[in-house]
# Entry
Amino acid sequence: MKLVRFGVAGAERPGLIDGEGRLRDLSQVIADIDGRILGDLGGLVPSEDSLPLVAGEQRLGPCLSGIGKIICIGRNYAEHAAESGSAVPTEPMIFMKATSALNGPFDDVVLPRDGNCGDWEVELGVVIGKRSKYVSEAEALDHVAGYCVLNDVSERDFQRNRQGQYTKGKSCDTFAPLGPWLVSRDDVPDPQDLRLWTRINGETRQDGTTADMVFGVAHLVSYLSRFMTLHPGDVIGTGTPSGVAMGMKPPQWLKAGDVMECGIDGLGAQRNVIRADS
# Structure
């Protein structure tokens, strides 16, 4: 099942993409795509054909609403750790990304004032489906509702040179395009067998596979649940493969007018135009 949220920013309605790629309206079935419905995605829709088709071009918003927290994992691909000049962590490296950074998968990404080192990070987003506390690795995937594309857009100068943790370089407005779809867990047989990629102005910059994660999805869900309770609708960003701007020589930072595309096979693709903050 491919769930979406469509409409103007701040007033999106729930929908799904049917087997023929058409948008159907879910608003008569549920109020929104959020933690309240994630525990029973299989019983959500009796029949796609019973849902009204949505005509015309529609903006897609973030594929999930009411997100409590976005938890990101740093250096979870060995080659990305190397290109950033860092060692591979011996335990998952955790940082938080503000929910105010959430953005639609086709909306503009805005570079902040005083920021000159914008970067991209395509990631597999893991959406929690039920309360998770001290979950074993064997049962961890049963606590996942589905998966989506997350671009952990970053301002590297803020992240690395402005003191403190990564938060200020990761949380600028628009720095978390999410979607286009939330794909239910049963439609992703193996989250460690997904190709993910980024193109900037049509040129491939990242081309990797989730098989190369240092810590896989099941391990991450179990690990995080030891330190904090995961709630339905929480999102885990599982790290990015090599090929980010920071790792290029010289770095090729994002600039106004660039077109950034990120995708994961089976989970769809995003397209964001970069602009400078006014």
About this structure: Residues 64-276 form a domain with the Fumarylacetoacetate hydrolase; domain 2 fold (CATH 3.90.850.10). Residues 119 and 154 are 5 Å apart (CA to CA).
